[in-house]
Amino acid sequence: MSLPPPPRTAVIVVAAGSGTRLNAGGPKAFVGIDEHSILRHALRGVFAAERAQVVVVAPAGLEGEALTEALSVAGDRQDLVTVVPGGVTRQQSVLAGLAALWGDVDLVLVHDAARAFTPPVVFDRVIASLSGGAPAVIPVVPVVDTIKRVAADGAIVEGVDRAELAAAQTPQGFRRDVLAAAAAAVDADHTDDASLVAAAGHPVVTVAGDERSFKITTGADLERARALLPTGPEASMSVPLLPRVGVGTDVHGFGGTGELWLAGLEWPGEPALSGHSDGDAVAHAIVDALLAAAGLGDIGTHFGTDRPEFAGAHADAFLSHTVTLLAEAGWRVGNVSVQVQANRPRFAARRVEAEQTLSAALGGAPVSVSATTTDGLGFTGRSEGVAAFATALVVPV
Ligand code: CTP
Ligand code: MG
Fold this sequence. Notes:
binds cytidine-5'-triphosphate; elongated; CATH 3.30.1330.50; binds magnesium ion; 12 helices; Spore Coat Polysaccharide Biosynthesis Protein SpsA, Chain A; 2 domains; alpha/beta; four-stranded mixed β-sheet
């Protein structure tokens, strides 16, 4: 197996701030949103996006803690993590991150750890725009408040048309040479990296940001973050959960003993399928699709031949146990679609019955069954066996 190439992209996660305005008794990045810190939540989004070197800029003295946080969510990307100590200002922390970039990196994203819930798609949007040739890219969201320019004495000077305004977020992305040159030449402190690059004369383009990417600055922001946290199994997942799909297929050859069982129905007079259980390829394909959708492995993981209680078992035993496994992991079945490829049996007359039987075994979730022949081709065309293909949708409970 060859190793993946070194990444061309890096994400610098600046997490070295003290969190003065949050005032939570310690560095902001290590403040808990739930049982996990702001930094850990932010890094989950980073590792769920495109593969990149990840440089965490930590408060000096807390590099080890930052590394632990990063490794706990890095998955198979542990070797892409670098931790360095930050500086007194955010800009100095960015410089510290830049100094730690690997040689192959030519695109750099700078992200505030304080934006704990930035969806991975925002990182990917910024990377896509950079890959398309933009030297500097920032994610923005529209400004919703009516904006006024206010004088030092509090008097309103003028209104500002909010259609011309956008709120800048992170990750902000740059060609490495552009950011490095601007950072080296800078003479004033900038609150974000794009203004530094713009001050150096480079055009900055925008991509869509995301409301969830707000920066945790004050106690009220931390409360907002806590309210956004999913409950149940989503809390332990790397990204907020959406419904998930899975596919499953199964094949059984004719040659079993007794009656045919297929799609949860007994088919008197039809040749039986062989298998450890009843050989019901339709039910087994559905089980695989459901387990795959929920990320719970496959049929062999839960119904292996070392489970004597499933020897000879029919569809309802497989399907109802699968529903239980899903429920334990926080999922319910959305719907299932399954297609049978076989010359025999003929499904037309019993299709609705099969759908109702399978649906009942799945606790009532809709099941669609379709059947087709293969024009005499392949093992199904030669009537040697049956193939089934299932797609399942599971929904977080
Ligand atoms: N940051 C940093 N190094 C600094 C200052 C800030 O890495 N010297 C990081 C923060 O950790 C944060 C991001 O820059 O992730 C945005 O800064 P901000 O929200 O201002 O965080 P703090 O500076 O920690 O907060 P405050 O300004 O309230 O002290
Ligand atoms: Mg600050």
